[in-house]
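User: Mind token order:
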Amino acid sequence: MDALTATGLVLLGLLLLAGGGEALVRAATTIADLAGVSPAVIGLTVVAIGTSLPELVVSLMAAARGEPDLAVANVVGSNIFTVAAILGLTALIIPLPVHGTAVRLEWPVMFGASLLCLTLARDGAIDRVEGGLFVITFAMFIAYTVHVARRDVSAAEARQFAEQAEAHDIDVRPARKGTPQLLITLGVLALGLASLVAGGKFLVDGAIALARIADMTERVIGLTIVAGGTSAPELATSLVAAFRKRTDVAVANIIGSNIFNILGILGVTALIAPIPVAPAIVRGDMWWMIGTTVLLLPLLRSGARLSRAEGGVLLGVYATYIVLLWRS
């Protein structure tokens, strides 16, 4: 396979992943709305998890293809990218409000999940038992998140979640809740799943080919091109919210997505087949993931918002990481 074909596969894969992920989120949001689930619960669970579906598909396919470096690097690189690049860029456009739950609930879980991931990967693999631990921990987090969403969400967050849920709903004319809307929604759901599967295959095939052509490791490709590409839904959502000045839940969504990346994606992948973890990822990239997580806490607590200057700091950290990664 030549470089042009490999690049085309990567771009086609990213396009299908983005479209499939969006279709799946819209279908899941509509189904949850039809079932009477509150907008806050939808925002904190369906939307946050849905934007990470491209990472899930890519990691599963990479592991199935015998490319564990790509599977793990995709998750680790995505978490670094979302915290340092996406939050940094979004805060440069408009300072991001930080609500209490992001500091009290989401950040400690994200930090704990990152630390747990590093600890379990130090022996060179994440096995099925450890994957099961990840999945159980994630299920407990979701249950507690639903509890918090029903009781402790502020008025501003509730409004933002309602707007977010409405924006992701499937608008069917005539708009009425019933069988026609449900059938259309299920069709969108099936289309989204098919697009995700096809997009994941194209992206993994193209990324592996590019790595071989450019004489780079799957780790580097996974940490950069694949991680940035699969995080495109989070980037697009955050930038649109920033330009519309609707950023009340932007920080919570990013942190929730990162929690799912570790506990959900690595957990499910390891349950299917144990994942070998390259020493370079354990020694370097996972520490960067933990470092950006630790750096985020004082920025979140510095004044109930993430300022433009703090966004610049995060972007500077990401640029430093990329330069050091490529030099290595």
